[in-house]
Amino acid sequence: MGDLFNKFDALIAQREALLSTGLTDPFNLVMEEVLSPTVAICNGKRTILLGTYNYMGMTFDPDVIAAGKQALDEFGSGTTGSRVLNGTYRGHRDCEDALKHFYAMDHAMVFSTGYQANLGIISTIAGKDDYIVLDIDSHASIYDGCALGNANIVPFRHNDVEALEKRLKRIPEGAGKLVILEGVYSMLGDIAPLKEMVAVSKAAGAMVLVDEAHSMGFIGENGRGVAEAQGVIDDVDFIIGTFSKSVGTVGGFCVSNHPKFEILRLVCRPYVFTASLPPSVVATAATSIRKLMHGADKRAHLWENSKKLHAGLKALGFTLGTDTPQSAIIAVIMPDLAKGAAMWEALLNEGLYVNLARPPATPGNMTLLRCSLCAEHSSEQVDQILTMFTAAGRATNCIS
Amino acid sequence: MTDRNDTATRVMAFIEPFNKKGIVVTEATRFAQDLEWDSLTVLDFVATIEDEFDILITMNQQAEIENVGQLVDAVTALKAA
User: Fold this and answer.
1) Is B43 in contact with A365 (Cβ distance < 8 A)?
2) Positive or negative, the Cα torsion across A242, A244, A249, A251?
3) Interface of B with A in 39-58 (CB under 8 A)
4) 1.10.1200.10, 3.90.25.10, 1.10.10.10, 1.10.3210.10: which CATH number matches B2-80?
């Protein structure tokens, strides 16, 4: 009789080999204390956080915290129920209103996580006979949504407008078509040419869904994302987003102007068959979203941070995921996993936390040190970060 | 049958630039185990086949294709559809 766990043997061996060198496990870090959006205590040491998705630094905002505490007092610790039964409180509606206002759209639907938002919306609107055309580097939640709905999946080369257009033209006449794109691709921090892609998708009669998880609050004049920045947000049928990045808590959502959108609340299984978010979470989310609408100064400072770090790392001789800073994510490409893990540990010893990303999450089997900046990082902290990269890079022979 | 033979010849020719190991390719050759293609190579190869034959091979169909013979069958069927 076969052990069902045998399929993990290769991964277990790879992990054991890596840890046998005495390296700190990059996937088992514990933050003992969190002092601010940008500083935590890890292994007893004060550590600058450069690997969170806290882009707008809202996690310790006094208004956000106060709203959460008030909701805890007034509505309790949890809803213990589905949105469609006993799990919709005033706060859930208020949160959806905040989203409608933020995006200037007619409908908003809040899910318990961003993963579930993609899983739910994609699997519900694209079924067995429909076609989903998507970028090959799409997030796992998008692929899982495609699989759950059993749609025909057609991938195209990352950010390749012509490859998308060709595939749209080959879809059988009359079949339902959904194109799925992301505003910012989180591994390399590059953005999509949404203007061109949305245009060819619409010309082919497809509906368009854009995941703006990594751009909300930061990119676009009102922080609505890459589709806003490139002037095509009105042609996007569905925007998927999350509360676990710029908003600073947890949860996911979809906003849309589709006239029949509300029916999804009854037919979308990852929305119906799970408990709704706790009242304190939707209260913090709604407060944060309303504040993000007026975050122009923070957005400007975050762009400065991104540009400064990108230029500094490039000057040090690191290979980066993008030629120019395109988002709040800057990916440093490492030659292999061993070198990447060594560099990750050296940075941690310097007092800097970044994300170590590796296959299969990364495109092209790359090992990455992913840096994500926060609007609350001071210019001095960015200088410190560059000093730490210099020391760690030299200690591990990643740079000369 | 000639149509299938013609397709097989063309598919084999398109495999060659991706045959980094330089192995002898037959209809029994498997893409993952024998040619050791990773997901990016598969994407590039499938895109080449799709463009050359003006067809779509969905990921759902790709999951059913393990070896060269199965790909030739799939392409032949998709062209006829």
Assistant:
1) no
2) positive
3) 39-40, 43-44, 47, 50-51, 54-56, 58
4) 1.10.1200.10
- Burial-class residue A323 by CB neighbours within 10 Å (0-12, 13-18, 19+): exposed
Q: Which residues contact B63 (CB under 8 A, 6 or more apart)?
A: none
Q: Give the integer Cα–Cα distance in Å for A216 and A212.
A: 6
Q: Single out the residue of A272, A290, A288, A270 nearest to residue A280, CA to CA.
A: A288
* Nearest Cα residue to A156 out of A189, A180, A126: A180
Structure tokens at A380: 């001095």
- Say yes or no: domain A62-292 is CATH 3.40.50.970: no
Task: Going residue by residue through chain A, which has 400 residues, state the pLDDT in tens, using 9 for 90 and above.
Answer: 799 999 999 999 988 998 898 887 888 889 999 999 999 999 899 999 999 999 999 999 999 999 999 999 999 999 999 999 999 999 999 999 999 999 999 999 999 999 999 999 999 999 999 999 999 999 999 999 999 999 999 999 999 999 999 999 999 999 999 999 999 999 999 999 999 999 999 999 999 999 999 999 999 999 999 999 999 999 999 999 999 999 999 999 999 999 999 999 999 999 999 999 999 999 999 999 999 999 999 999 999 999 999 999 999 999 999 999 999 999 999 999 989 999 999 999 999 999 999 887 788 889 999 999 999 999 999 999 999 999 999 999 999 8
Amino acid letter, A155: P
Cross-sheet strand order for the sheet of A238-242: A107-111, A252-256, A238-242, A207-211, A177-182, A131-135, A152-156
- Does B44 contact A157 at a Cβ distance shorter than 8 Å? yes
Q: What ranges do the domains of chain B cover?
A: 2-80
Q: Which residues of A touch B (CB under 8 A)?
A: 131, 136, 152-157, 163, 166-167, 170-171, 360, 363-365
CATH code given to domain A23-56+296-395: 3.90.1150.10
User: How many interface pairs between A and B have CB atoms less than 8 angstroms apart?
Assistant: 31
- Tell me how close the Cα of B32 comes to any Cα of chain A, in angstroms: 15
CA quadruple A49, A52, A58, A59: dihedral sign? negative
Apex CA A125: angle with CA A99 and CA A115, to 5°? 55
* Domain edges within chain A: 23-56+296-395, 62-292
Backbone angles phi, psi at A135, to 5 degrees: -65, 135
